[in-house]
Amino acid sequence: MEEFLTAHFWLAVGQIIMIDILLGGDNAVVIALACRGLAPSQRTKGILWGTVGAIVLRVVLIAFALSLLQVPYLKLVGAILLLWIGIKLLVPEDDGGHDNIQASDKLWSAVKTVIVADLVMSVDNVIAIAGAAQGAGETHQLPLVIFGLLVSIPIIVGGSQIVLKLMDRFPIIITLGGMLLGWIAGTMAHSDPALAAYLPQDKTTSYVFGVAGALLVLAVGKWMQRKSATSSV
């Protein structure tokens, strides 16, 4: 019992909570973006199932957390997926001719989008939690990782509900959310081991990649919005 009262243990606990607040917020935005088109009665289900998928992915990924850092091109592939998801979330869906689609179909489509995005974004989250847990010593790594996963559940669920309400009131948040995914994609691509030998690994370069990713999502998303509006006229 005394081992759980050490400064290293509680420092690791604090780090994991901060990681979940920072990175879990990104997941909340993704879930809210994917579920915004659902009927109000379906939104809670979409958020809950999307969160379950996110947690399951974290449990699976945690076993490979350290080795994933060394896999070249993995983050590049993830970045491309995030860019595409961010762009698609900015483009309004064409509801014409789809009035008879059951809510459950839309629900699982939203959950699928959430799970794909979380698969990409959970890598950094799991790696960060595993790294923080190492600071407490080998004995406590697994309990701390489990603790970190449990903490992330209310953060993601609560954050998604808040973001959804804000999106209904302020549609600009949808655009900002898509750009956030672009930012994450850019910084993720910059940190890929395959690019480490060719790019300076500093914060400035990472920010440049993040801004480029955000602007790319905005530009392509707006272009597809105009194209969709023109074709529907």
Structure description:
Helix 4 packs parallel to helix 8 (203-232). Helices cover 79% and strands 0% of the residues. The chain contains eight helices and no strands.
Short description:
The protein has 233 residues and is an all-alpha fold. The protein contains eight helices and no strands.
Biggest sheet statistics: none
How does the overall form come out from the CA principal axes? globular
What order do the helices and strands follow? Answer: HHHHHHHH
Number of helices: 8
Query: Which consecutive residue ranges, at least 5 long each, have pLDDT under 50?
Result: 95-104
Distance between the termini: 69 Å
- What percentage of amino acids are in beta strands? under 5%
Query: Radius of gyration in whole Å, from Cα?
Result: 19 Å
**What structural class results from the helix and strand content?**
mainly alpha
Specify the helix fraction band. over 70%
Number of strands: 0
Mean pLDDT: 75
Entry keywords:
mainly alpha; 8 helices; 233 residues; globular
Detail the topology: elements first, then pairings.
Layout: H1 7-35, H2 40-62, H3 65-68, H4 74-90, H5 103-134, H6 141-169, H7 172-190, H8 203-232
